Amino acid sequence: MKFSSRKVDDVLVFDLKGPLEGGEESYKIKDVIKGELDGGAKKILLNMDKVSFVNSTGIGIITAAFVSIQNAGAQMKIANANEKISRVMMVTKLLEVFDSYYEEDEALKAFRGGPS
To answer: Which residues form the STAS domain (predicted)?
Structure first.
């Protein structure tokens, strides 16, 4: 998995790309998120539009990031998870834990407290 980040207003958006299944780059996102939290980031959006596959290791990475974000008093949302990834999150009951949206714009509005 590869990733890049960008700011949209006060939201830090991570654009994830490729399979989320472990490996050095996948684990690196946890360190980058921790650094952003240490720097004061409070709103983080994982854009999964280009994620092609996720396995249990990938779910673990997302869950660990979520826990770090929650422990820092910040918020995390997920956007654009395709049907296959949404199904994995549904089976693992993570859709009940993660705040997930079909579109990035919906998630950004939710951070602002607007209707989705």
So the answer is: 1-111
